[in-house]
User: Fold this.
Amino acid sequence: QKEVEQNSGPLSVPEGAIASLNCTYSDRGSQSFFWYRQYSGKSPELIMFIYSNGDKEDGRFTAQLNKASQYVSLLIRDSQPSDSATYLCAVSSSGYALNFGKGTSLLVTP
Amino acid sequence: NAGVTQTPKFQVLKTGQSMTLQCAQDMNHNSMYWYRQDPGMGLRLIYYSASEGTTDKGEVPNGYNVSRLNKREFSLRLESAAPSQTSVYFCASSSDRGPGEQFFGPGTRLTVL
Assistant:
């Protein structure tokens, strides 16, 4: 069974702080890594993807990948109350099937 | 562009009834997916279709059938609904450029009594 593990939270951070969300995966053959954001009662929305070791930045978001440690993280700088949502980590070993973690709930307090 | 659309938004069934969930996308994507999302279980893949004319099982296919009607449409059928199929169902699509870069529909909230 290919596992994707996330701390369910809630992770609470003050407005303006950096939120750090973490994800580990069990399949060493995993090739592609994704972060989806899901607001309560809504559908998931892709916010970041990363395919190579290292960091990838997009605006206030940075995805970090360490394949040796089987670890992927998402940093949100200058967190805003509108960032309050559940963040889903997803991993693909090959082809089309995504394996999702159960998500981390983030609460940004004003 | 509407993106990915799903019908119905809500549905209540009795045990043993059948129904079909409809999904359509207007992004010219080759790949389409059906997921279910349950509290504490996360998103789980039911079936996917990598291209028109092909379908493959995901993690939890039992009790479901799918049809890739054409490039735009991918339906999910419950032949004999069971209370364990109470869930929120999401359809998604992606291009060949990035199969993991999926666009999700708004979801169908299904309750089976």
Q: What stands out?
A: The first strand of chain A starts at residue 4 and ends at 5.
